[in-house]
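ugh finaly. both done.
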Amino acid sequence: MKTLLTSTTLIASLMTTVVNANDDLDSVISAAKKEGAVYSVGMPDSWANWKGTWADLGEVYGLKHQDTDMSSAQEIAKFSAEKTNATADIGDVGFAFARVAVKKGVTQAYKPTTWDSIPDWAKDKDGHWALAYTGTISFISNNNLVKNPPTSWDDILKGDYRVTVGDVGIASQANNAVLAAAFALGGSEKNIKPAIKFFSKLAKQGRLSLNDPGLANLEKGEVEVAILWDFNALNYRDQIDRSRFTVSIPQDGSVISGYTTIINKYAQNPNAAKLAREYIFSDKGQINLAQGYARPIRDNVTLPAEIQAQLLPNEQYSNVHSVTDFKAWEKTARKLPRQWQENVLLHIQ
């Protein structure tokens, strides 16, 4: 069961940091309460337990909340298109999209009071973005449909089941699935040809499915194997029936990445958005994310034993790779939609 900090306890815990870290937090809290609401994009209840965070912000600060789910690219496009007519205050985008959002000039900076405990590699020096949690690309297999659940990309290639990967070229999760395959098959941020060749083979075999790899289709049995972030796969597994699904990290290689909040430069409720980020990086906010199967970015947060137990064993992560050449990956990701269309979707039967 999710436990909530009381208003007094939470504010007291934040204020212990505010004296040294951010003297303006009192003003942010006061202004956020006056705004009274925060509107998000790409932060639905079912993803990384955002539901718990929105519930806490409502109980502690009285903030109302509404989300419109969309991909990372769509979030940035929305901020850019609406400008001063903004209908969203904050979004959650994949790591590769963070710098894109800053370059497009649609973000505003805010450093939470726990800023110093966020690793340097996971944050923008000016405070425009910071990863709140990480995810690793995994496989989720329906045990009723797949006799031998895959634990490697090689297993998938030798299998006889259909594989669902999502909206490659649009969704960060799907793009990272391609990158994970590239890492495993000898490629890199600059060279995803091995992965394109891999998925092309699946398409030619009639084994690449265009089904949405979401909760509803998994529950209905319309997905045999899906490639998802581990936190989504574990969450879906436990929501439906733990015994029906097997989740594993591909042992021949995967990618670990993360998601970052971006606060809309034109937000109508900017202080509520800043307070949301503040809470997300607090101890309780980080535990909320872990309760949604995501791995918190702050390593000085102690997770309750029951939450730690629902995550995959650490040994499954022995062959995961982080993105090190961000410029190369940004360039590759921009070209990915056309490559996917011309080399993979062309062969869908």
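ok and the 2nd:
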Amino acid sequence: MSRDARWSSLLDLLAEHGRLDVDEAADALRVSTATIRRDLDQLAEQQMLIRTHGGAVAHGVSYELPLRYRTARNAPQKQRIAAAVAAMVTAGEVVGLTGGTTTTEVARALALRGDLADGGGTGAAGRPPVLTVVTNALNIAGELVIRPQIKLVVTGGVARPQSYELTGPLAGGILAQITLDIAVLGIDAIDPAEGVYAHHEDEASTNRLLAERARRVVVATDSSKIGRRAFARICGTGSVHTLVTDSAAPAAAVAAFEEAGVQVITV
């Protein structure tokens, strides 16, 4: 197991239980206690946890993993979901991407689409861009800015280090002035009856506005987030046109989404 995978697993365990014991963590990850102690020391140096005698505790009940340590979770599923979402996009469209690990994979899938790469760029002979991407995520912007075939629009706002997202009135001011063909939402939870959620109200507010500016709203999420609720509501189920998830999605939840008028694509 790589260091990043160990760190992701340790932080997952910490988020679930609130504290970690070195011996129990070593058994769970099947590595030595010396490796776990070294990992916890390094995570404590980055202020990801508080080191204790014999283990570690989380900073508080609102503990959240920064995006860079969540990328290894359900990676194959997220890549399949991203490929399916990218295939829904037509050349010439304006696509909105919120922050998140799955939407980051969507951005990568869009950048690698050969048919989009053949368009000659945003400035070729005054032609319109092959694709326009609007995002409030700094990491997605960093991935796409070097792609000449993509016109990149980044909202303003205050950056959240946990998710790399820009939020607040500056982000809202930009989004209020544009229209999107499709908005792809990265989320923290979705429930057929209750709707779509994020953990933080600032992210939810910005994502809600992005969805309101789009003709089509696509939720891209792995099945672990289905049937859950989080703190801040982004939008109701009725605002979602398509849910793209993996094949482990509960059949009852899929049926409930379809009954509510949401197209469900499982990959």
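summary for the 2nd one i guess: The chain has a mean pLDDT of 89.
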